[in-house]
Request: fold
Amino acid sequence: MNKGWALGLKGLAIAAALSMAGGTLAQDATPAAISAAPAVAPVAPPTPADVAAAATAASASVAETAAQHSAVQNDAIMGYTRTAPTDRIGQPVPKGINLQEQFTPIGREAKALTENILNPIIGVISIFVLGLMFWVVFRFRSGAVEAPSRTTHNFTIEVVWTLIPALILLFIAFPSFRLLANQYSPPKADLTVKVTGYQWYWGYEYPDYGGISFDSVPLSKEDAAKEGTPYLLEVDNRLVVPAGATVKVLVTAADVLHSFAVPSFWVKMDAVPGKVNETWFKVDRPGVYYGQCSELCGTKHGFMPIAVEVLSPDDFKRWVRMKQAQDGIDPTGPGIALEPTPVSPATAAAAVRAAIAPSTAPQIANTEAPAAPAAAPAA
Ligand SMILES: [Cu+2]
Reply:
């Protein structure tokens, strides 16, 4: 019996030693790949026919363009083309059992904590307990023991099996609390977006940029196949954010509980009607990242995916200007109003034609200008 206790103690000690040596938290590890250039789908330059078609449409109103096809053409002309997702990045992989690759500082810290500390400790404890059970079952089976022991207390082992788990918890607590603190003390936000969950789609709003707002619904199977994007993850209007910016996300819901979750950002926040929850992320790598509603919210719960497109800061500004033009919002927001609005090729051509043509119209307007006030009251 004494030999048995001694073996048990030895096992506990080995388990504790192994778990302590399980790994260090690579909190500030920043894989070089993270800042690598994104794989962006090549953008086909608009053909003269496209430009002509767009010019016709633009003369009325870009926002009122009905057909999706011509809307996409206009988007391209205004400097924005949808980024193609990268295979195995920002989305689940077939037969994958590990966490998705992380692209935010919090995600990297949390993944390191999980893989370097939690998983080894869980593994060692599980194997130790399983081994102990097998050993007890075989060593103390009825055929091997003539007179069963009547021992009920052992002071040493009770101290050990209380102390070692407490030390393991303490060891986990430090990196765990640090992660929690980092998660809840975000850097100053560069951009705020409001996310609203509806039955069954997402709505996005940009209060910093004149209140750009739009709904985001999944692409049909055919459209996703045509675009080469994942069905049930891809949407018509993505949440677009700039790379390297701290994005504050205000999450709410309009009808029932939803949950805004993007696994590769380590973001999951409940969307609660009548309440605004806050989370944040900062992604350096431009690309497309997918998520899903993670709160059972009704029959089409599985059909309200989230697609986040991270663009370079310049491309993001172009996207903002395009959205503002489509929504009839005056150029506004950080870095938007200060710079000249990009001119589409069609508009530029019209401006050149106007400049080189004999400019009769402005002269007439100038010479007749003094007469205008007199005419005005009569009209
Ligand atoms: Cu939902």
About this structure: Residues 1-46, 54-71, 359-379 have pLDDT under 50 and may be disordered. Residues 197, 258, 293, 295, 297, 301, 304 surround copper (II) ion (CB under 6 Å). Residues 105-139 form the longest helix (35 residues).
